Amino acid sequence: MADAETEAKKEDGEGEKKFGQYPLIRMTDLPNETKPEIVEMISTTVERNSLDLQNACKLIKEHMDKTYGSSWNVIIGEAFGFEVSYLKRHLLYMFTLGTLGVLVWKCG
Question: Residues 94-107, buried b or exposed e (16+ Cβ, 10 A)?
Fold first, then answer.
């Protein structure tokens, strides 16, 4: 009987771990005025370039340099740690598309 219930849950997708499609912000000190715009731009860029993350990094960096001044850095990947020096109010670390981490920061 338990096997039938387990099979039914598998078919319904119940009990499976599902990742959110929304961005999950882990650490930031960006101003509240610019944060939603930046998060949306990053999420959209990563989704559109999910098969070419190097291109996604390039596009995000170019946009950030153009919009908020130069010296932005971008890292996109899974299972990485970081310790960076950055300008105050210029750091964002978030997850998108489940386990894909995005780190964006500006250095002086």
Answer: bbbeeebbbbbbbe
Say what the pTM is: 0.78
pLDDT in tens, 44-54: 999 999 999 99
Strand order in the sheet with 24-28: 24-28, 91-96, 100-106, 72-77
Q: Could you give the CA distance from residue 78 to residue 16 in angstroms, rounded to a whole number?
A: 21
Count CB atoms within 10 A of the CB of residue 11: 8
Nearest to 23 by CA among 94, 89, 99, 106: 94
